C-alpha cells in the first residue's frame, strides 16, 4: 500500500536529510552532546542513554502514523548533526507538521537550518501538494519561536496546558503555520536568506 509520504532523501548545498535509521544512533549521540542539548528543560533532545529509544519512537511513528523522520547531515563534513521529522500527518486534508527538530550547537543559526526548512517545505508543498504545514514549540523556547517566525510562518495561537513535560511541568504550545497560498513568498524569502 502506498503512503502519502514515502521515504525520500532531500539534498542541498549545506545539508542532506536522509531517512533516520538505527544506524544513526552513535552519530546522534555525538550531535546531542555538542551543547548537552538534552539539558534544555523546554525541549526534548535525547540524552546519550536515550538515543536508541528516541530513534525507536521515531520509527514507530513512521510505521504506525505515516511520519517521516530524518537524520540531518552537514553536507560539508558528512557529519550527522541532528534530526527532524514530518509528523502529525493528515493525508486526507493534506496537512503535516515539521518538528522534533534539533541540531548540534555548532550548526545552530547557520545556513544548514534555513536550507533544511527550505528542502522540507519545498517537498511538502511542491511534491506532496500539502495545503498547510505546521510548526509547534514550547512557549518558553523563545529562540525557536523567533526562528519559526523568521521562516515566514504565522502564529496561529497558543494551546495552553497542552502537554505535560517529562519533569511534570505543564507546557503551553505555540502553533505556527504556512499555508499553500503563502508558500511562493516564503520560498522567495528563504532563498534570499540563503543567498546572503
Question: What would you say about this model in short?
Answer:
By secondary structure, this protein is an alpha+beta fold. Helix content is 33%, strand content 32%. The longest helix has 17 residues.
Blueprint of the fold:
Layout: E1 10-11, E2 15-19, H1 25-33, H2 51-65, E3 68-74, E4 80-90, E5 95-103, H3 111-127, E6 132-138, H4 142-151, E7 154-164, E8 170-179, H5 183-195
Parallel strand pairs: 5-6
Antiparallel strand pairs: 1-2, 2-3, 3-4, 4-5, 6-8, 7-8
Helix pairs in contact: 3-5
Features:
Aminopeptidase, alpha+beta, eight-stranded mixed β-sheet, globular, single chain, 196 residues
Task: Describe the protein's architecture and organization.
Helix 3 (111-127) runs antiparallel to helix 5. The protein has a single domain, classed as 3-Layer(aba) Sandwich (Aminopeptidase). The chain has 5 helices and 8 strands. An 8-stranded mixed beta sheet has the order 1-2-3-4-5-6-8-7, with helices on both faces. The longest helix is centred in the middle third of the chain and has 17 residues, at 111-127. The radius of gyration is 16 Å and the shape is globular. The protein is an alpha+beta fold.
Amino acid at each position: 500500500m502506498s503512503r502519502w509520504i514515502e521515504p525520500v532523501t532531500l539534498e542541498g548545498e549545506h545539508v542532506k536529510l536522509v531517512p533516520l535509521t538505527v544506524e544513526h544512533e552513535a552519530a546522534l549521540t555525538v550531535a546531542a552532546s555538542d551543547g548537552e542539548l538534552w539539558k534544555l528543560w523546554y525541549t526534548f533532545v535525547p540524552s546519550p542513554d536515550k538515543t536508541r529509544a528516541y530513534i525507536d519512537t521515531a520509527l514507530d511513528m513512521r510505521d504506525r502514523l505515516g511520519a517521516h523522520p530524518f537524520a540531518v547531515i552537514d553536507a560539508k563534513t558528512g557529519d550527522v548533526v541532528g534530526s527532524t521529522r514530518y509528523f502529525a500527518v493528515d493525508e486526507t486534508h493534506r496537512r503535516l507538521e515539521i518538528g522534533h527538530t534539533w541540531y548540534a550547537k555548532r550548526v545552530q543559526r547557520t545556513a544548514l537550518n534555513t536550507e533544511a526548512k527550505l528542502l522540507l517545505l519545498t517537498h511538502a508543498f511542491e511534491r506532496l501538494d500539502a495545503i498547510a504545514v505546521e510548526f509547534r514549540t514550547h512557549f518558553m523556547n523563545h529562540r525557536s519561536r523567533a526562528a519559526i517566525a523568521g521562516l515566514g510562518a504565522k502564529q496561529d495561537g497558543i494551546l495552553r496546558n497542552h502537554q505535560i513535560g517529562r519533569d511534570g511541568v505543564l507546557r503551553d504550545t505555540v502553533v505556527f503555520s504556512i499555508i499553500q497560498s503563502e508558500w511562493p513568498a516564503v520560498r522567495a524569502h528563504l532563498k534570499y536568506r540563503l543567498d546572503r
